[in-house]
Amino acid sequence: MKIDAFRKMVASLTLTSVGDRLASAKTTLPWLLGVAGAPTWCAGLLVPVRESGSMLPQVWLAHRFRRVAVRKWIWVWGSAVQAAGLFGMAWAGVALEGLAAGLAVLALLGLFSLGRAGASLASKDVMGRVIGKERRGRLNGWKSG
């Protein structure tokens, strides 16, 4: 059975949403740093690293992505980088302690955010190409619900 583009996009965007919640700089990651015994200043840097790491690179990346003919591979790359960052943060929280855990989580959050920037740009482009205007609203509703 072949899965259509709409269902693939719903699945991918849902998994991205789960990843965003797991890498929440406001809830999950401060808890993880606290359990690992990281300095409190590390928790204070989580939101700036997460937000600037996913938004600022988009300006630079958008210009370079225009040169790529098949942008779905950028989306795949961005998703893989997000997954690596997420699993790395989980590993750092379990395997490291103190300052080492805090610095590792911050670095991996930066990596996660960079992947998020690329995946976000590419997913919007791919959605515009393969999902008709009449179905885009429904797609966003499914991924949110």
Shape: elongated
Mean pLDDT: 84
Topology, number of strands: 0
The fraction of residues assigned to DSSP E strands is under 5%
Helix amount: over 70%
Structure annotation, total helices: 6
Q: Which structural category fits the helices and strands? A: mainly alpha
The SSE order reads HHHHHH
Gyration radius (Cα, Å) is: 17 Å
- Give the biggest sheet: none
Structure write-up:
The protein is built from six helices and no strands. Helix 2 (about 30-35) crosses helix 3, helix 3 packs parallel to helix 5 (about 100-130) and helix 4 (about 70-95) runs antiparallel to helix 5. The chain is mainly alpha-helical and about 140 residues long. The radius of gyration is 17 Å and the shape is elongated. Helices cover about 85% and strands about 0% of the residues. The two termini are about 25 Å apart.
